[in-house]
Specification:
Elements lengths: L3 H54 L9 H11 L9 E7 L2 E5 L14 E7 L2 E10 L4 E8 H37 L1 H12 L15 H49 L8 H25 L10 E4 H11 L1 H6 L3 E6 L2 E5 L1 H17 L6 E8 L3 E8 L34 H11 L2 E7 L6 E8 L3 E3 L5 E2 L1
Parallel strand pairs: 7-9
Antiparallel strand pairs: 1-2, 1-5, 3-4, 4-5, 6-8, 7-14, 8-13, 9-10, 10-12, 11-12
Length: 465
């Protein structure tokens, strides 16, 4: 069921149509039966009337009238009656035809038996009534065509049913309007839920909701409360765990530094221990960054920031690690101002540059580009390293996932949270990320595309650094 409104309209209108159809069918049968009775009563009345009229206008003592006399008599007394093929009659006495209507056979049109009969005469089906006047010793036979009677009855019945059928489309429109109005609180509730931000877990108001939606709103509010409590527990756990781990890690680093007085720094076991401690410290810092930039808990207001300036600051701060690997890093583009959080964007670019540096070989190149299009602003970081297979692009954003596992070919330490943090910050700024091949012969390209609606550009000329 894709639409409640469509379902309700279809069911209600179908039910009404079915009821109207059954009522019309039953009414048609009942009306046809009553119409048949009315026509039969009219046929009986005509027989009685003919009996009376014949006794008044017969001047020959109940003797048969000639054809010309019948015509003259009917036209003289009833000039509007010219004879037709719908009604006919006969008057008999002692098997002698005294009078008949025009175009009526001279043979008896029915048996001389009181009551109704149905017979085929002159190519049509006729309804015949036979009446015997025992005072005048006359048989009066009156007949009407059955098909004409049915047509007249159907026309009368259809004229009563037709307005109901015509009203069905109007009734459907009225039902559609009423159901749409009745579902408006549900539509309003959906709009309120859709307008909620990712970090807004406040309960929905219940006092103005219809009775049918109170249970839904209460269930939704209970879900919000459970989610809020879960997020707070997760935040406290991540924050407390990271902060608690900082102290022992710092102590271990101090002891390692002191051990350099006893153990040579090139000792293999010492290097492994030192790498493990550095990796643990990096993991703790990444967990803290991930916790700070969580969309559900993020409450900082966006300000206007310059992506180019942030890129310059991050490159200057991280330049030492690039110099240690003899990497060539360049920044190109222009000053572009967007609405965002300076700290989060700093973390985003820092993680992108850190990945580009880690997974590049000595002497490779890294390029940071900031460009604008008619609909977006693009922040792109490329390197000329070994790159990543395309079938692994989707998994790069999974938390704690590293290509080839912990023992990466590059030999560098990592925890697999860098791109997960980048993706989270991008979603926070309503941006999307595209992975692809770099413009170098090898390597990976990570492009963060900010939507035009969230961008305020100011071109201060193209720069290359």
């Amino acid at each position: 069921m894709k639409s409640i409104r469509t379902f309700l309209i279809t069911v209600i209108l179908s039910t009404i149509t079915l009821v109207v159809f059954l009522s019309a069918l039953n009414g048609y049968k009942d009306s046809m039966h009553k119409a048949e009775q009315l026509f039969d009563m009219a046929l009986v009345d005509k027989a009685y009337l003919l009996s009376i009229v014949f006794s008044l206008f017969n001047e020959n003592g109940y003797k048969p009238l000639s054809e010309s006399r019948v015509i003259n008599l009917m036209q003289a007394k009833h000039p509007e009656i010219k004879g037709n093929d719908v009604f006919m009659f006969q008057i008999w006495q002692d098997n002698i035809l005294l009078l008949r209507s025009l175009q009526t056979p001279k043979e008896p049109i029915s048996d001389f038996k009181t009551g109704f009969q149905n017979k085929n005469i002159i190519g049509h089906r006729w309804r015949i009534y036979a009446f015997y006047n025992d005072k005048l010793y006359l048989w009066i036979l009156t007949a009407e065509r059955s098909d004409i009677r049915y047509v007249l009855a159907e026309n009368i019945i259809l004229e009563t049913i037709l307005p109901v059928i015509i009203m069905l489309p109007l009734l459907g429109i009225l039902i559609w309007i009423l159901i749409s109005y009745g579902l408006s609180p549900l539509r309003k509730l959906a709009q309120e839920l859709g307008n909620k931000k990712a970090d807004d877990l406040s309960p929905l108001p219940v006092d103005q909701q219809p009775v049918e939606l109170i249970q839904v709103v209460n269930s939704t509010n209970n879900l919000f409360n459970r989610l809020k409590a879960s997020f707070l527990r997760e935040k406290r756990f991540a924050s407390d765990a990271a902060h608690e781990l900082r102290t022992p890690i710092s102590a271990i680093k101090i002891h390692l530094h002191n051990l350099t007085q006893v153990v040579p720094e090139d000792n293999h076991s010492f290097q492994q221990l030192n790498d493990a401690v550095n990796r643990m410290g990096h993991l703790v810092e990444q967990i803290l960054n991930l916790n700070r930039t969580s969309p559900e808990q993020y409450i900082s207001k966006f300000t206007e920031v310059d992506l180019y300036t942030i890129a310059q600051e991050v490159i200057a701060r991280e330049y030492q690690q690039f110099a240690e690997k003899d990497l060539q890093i360049e920044l190109e583009g222009k000053h572009v101002h967007i609405n965002g959080d300076p700290f989060a964007l700093d973390v985003l670019l820092q993680n992108l540059l850190s990945n580009a540096c880690k997974y590049s070989n000595n002497g490779d190149s890294v390029r940071v580009s900031i460009n604008t299009t008619e609909q977006s602003v693009e922040l792109q970081v490329q390197n000329s390293g070994p790159g990543v297979p395309e079938d692994q692009y989707g998994r790069l954003f999974d938390r704690f996932y590293r290509l080839h596992g912990d023992r990466h070919d590059s030999g560098v330490t990592g925890c697999g949270l860098g791109l997960a943090i980048v993706q989270q910050i991008a979603e926070l700024h309503q941006a999307r990320i595209e992975l692809g091949h770099s413009s170098f012969s090898t390597g990976l390209s990570v492009k963060v595309i900010f939507n035009k609606n969230n961008v305020n550009t100011r071109d201060e000329g193209r720069n290359n650094a």
